[in-house]
Amino acid sequence: MIGLPAGTQVWIAAGVTDMRKGFDGLSALVQQVLADDPFSGPVFAFRGCRGDQLKLLWWDGDGLCLLSKRLERGRFIWPKAESGRVHLTAAQLSMLLEGIDWRPPDRTAKPLKAA
């Protein structure tokens, strides 16, 4: 993937998206559903209903970029929420694109005493 500039925000659109949508349809979703400006610089990620397809929409300053990826096996890890958005770091986005679980791991219980 093309490297993103430092400080670029990454947002996941919770729920499922019609993967037939392209530049205009996804830009409209960003404006209407996420109440954000698709031309402000963040990366917006969308997932299809089967969970094996992902689209990223990003304004690079000159035009919109649209990246699409389909996993041959497995599913992209997505938030349980049906609406809204979730913020990711660039490292979490890299993990997401590799099909790796990007969510923070569950920690085991902390010991109450040393001995």
Alpha-carbon distance between the two ends:
50 Å
Strands side by side in the biggest sheet: 4-3-2-1-5
Query: Helical region count?
Result: 2
Structural class: alpha+beta
Q: Major β-sheet, in short?
A: 5 strands, mixed
Percent strand equals 15-25%
How many domains make up the coordinates?
Answer: 1
**Radius of gyration using CA atoms only:** 16 Å
Specify the helix fraction band. 10-25%
Q: Which H/E pattern describes the elements?
A: EHEEEEH
Uncertain stretches of 5 or more adjacent residues? none
How confident is the prediction overall: mean pLDDT? Answer: 88
Number of strands: 5
What would the principal axes of the Cα set say about the shape? globular
The quaternary state of the protein chains shown equals single chain
Description:
With 115 residues, the chain is an alpha+beta fold. It has one domain. The protein is built from two helices and five strands. It has helices at residues 23-32, 90-97, and strands at 10-13, 43-47, 53-59, 64-70, 85-88. Strands 4-3-2-1-5 form a five-stranded mixed sheet. It is globular, with a radius of gyration of 16 Å. The N and C termini lie far apart (50 Å).
Short description:
The protein is α+β, with helices and mostly antiparallel strands and 115 residues long.
Topology:
Blueprint: E1 10-13, H1 23-32, E2 43-47, E3 53-59, E4 64-70, E5 85-88, H2 90-97
Parallel strand pairs: 1-2
Antiparallel strand pairs: 1-5, 2-3, 3-4
Protein name: Transposase
Organism: Hydrocarboniphaga effusa AP103
Pfam families: TnpB_IS66
